[in-house]
Amino acid sequence: MDIIDFHTHLWPDKVAQKAKEYLEASYRRQMTEVPTVDNALKIMDEVGITKSVIASVASRPDQVEHINNWLFNIKSDRFIKFAALHPFYEKWSYELDRIKDNAMGIKYQPEFQMFFIDDEKIFPVYEKIQKLQIPILFHCGYELTLTGLIQAGPKQMLNVKKHFPGIKFIAAHMGGFMLWDEIEDKIIGDNHFYLDTSSAVIFMKKEQIYRFLQKHSPDRILFGSDFPFGHPKKDLDFFKTLNIEKDKFEKIMHINAEKLLNLI
């Protein structure tokens, strides 16, 4: 069976070790590997991952073009590219055209990028993203570092949906890291939102996971590991303990991602 890991992070070889040390200190979590392309491919082969989404993040506007130049030049067809886009990057329209031609989605990390996802100043950006039909993977919920503000919680998510109902909205970490009670109350069952499972299912209570899987469309859940913070084998092994129906399991593991990204 094919498996698509919808949430991973990688860096260029020359900065990967430095990024690992900085992020481990910031998050107080150990990475499973130095986050390079070669190490990711090694883990993918060991675990049986067919393809992985590289979710690239620009903490500052001036990083956007450099990060995406690196991302766009990765040659392996086993990686699906979700490009960096800072909400306050002045050349956002030009960059969106490049992203449309060279990648399959966008990653926003509100905590690092210091913005609320429903800030009206970025509505023109969303308008073009919606027109181009580029999926957005949002970090949602708490972050383990920095301010502790909830800049992508249910309130903000629903406001983005209200103004841009055509945006393909993927809410990482099962809708919102450490906000799962609120997500269950306000988001679960609203099938506008895709949820990825990264850095979530291994922290959630099994009873709540089962409720999420029962109440939310099985067509709107995507397997993700958050590699290198998480390890895909650990998440896959956990999923196998849930006794999910075969057809639903295959949707989560690869079919939903393939349909969302027009791979089938």
What does this protein look like?
With 264 residues, this protein is of the alpha/beta class. It is 42% helix and 12% strand. The protein contains eleven helices and eight strands. The protein has helices at 13-27, 37-47, 64-72, 92-102, 110-113, 123-132, 154-163, 180-186, 206-215, 232-240, 246-260; strands at residues 4-8, 51-55, 79-84, 105-108, 136-138, 169-171, 193-196, 221-222. Helix 4 (92-102) runs parallel beside helix 6 (123-132). The two termini are 15 Å apart. 44% of the residues are buried.
Count of beta strands = 8
Subunit organisation of the chains? single chain
Radius of gyration: 17 Å
Which structural class should the secondary elements be placed in? Answer: alpha/beta
Strand content: 5-15%
Measured distance between first and last alpha carbons:
15 Å
What do the pLDDT scores average to?
94
String of helices and strands: EHHEHEHEHHEHEHEHEHH
Instruction: Determine the fraction of residues in helical runs and give it as a percent range.
Output: 40-55%
Contiguous helical run count: 11
Show unreliable segments.
Answer: none
Q: Main sheet, how many strands, which sense, barrel?
A: 8 strands, parallel
Shape: globular
Numbering strands along the chain, what is their spatial order in the largest sheet? 1-2-3-4-5-6-7-8
